[in-house]
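Quick one: structure for this chain?
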Amino acid sequence: MGNELTSGKDIQKEKFQTKFSNDELQKLFRNFKSLDADNDGYLKKEEFLQIEALQQNPLVSRVLEIFDDDGNDQIDFTEFVEALSIFCANDQEEKEAKVRFAFKIYDVDSNGYVSNGDLFRILKIMVGDNLND
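Got it. Here's what it folds into:
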């Protein structure tokens, strides 16, 4: 869907499974476009890392993997909106989505369990070469 949206006029709440209003979606689209340095309709890791607050976060790659529903190593606007909506949870269903997201951070192999290997990989991401096998 990334290349299908060329202007904020194309964005309407009905196209997204989110509680964002049309005005909020328009603002999100403007932010998305400002991050999209090469104007291809997708955000890549390098473009996210232009956000100063994310530059030192060792889990950025892992979070982007979770946001990237189709696994193409880039985030389209739909994935962007759906990912951000997780963090705006107010009702019970949305709060559960937040918990599922947090779980996915640690369930690196996506098998529904957080194993010792998963924890080791996350710790390795966070501390780098300071953690021995």
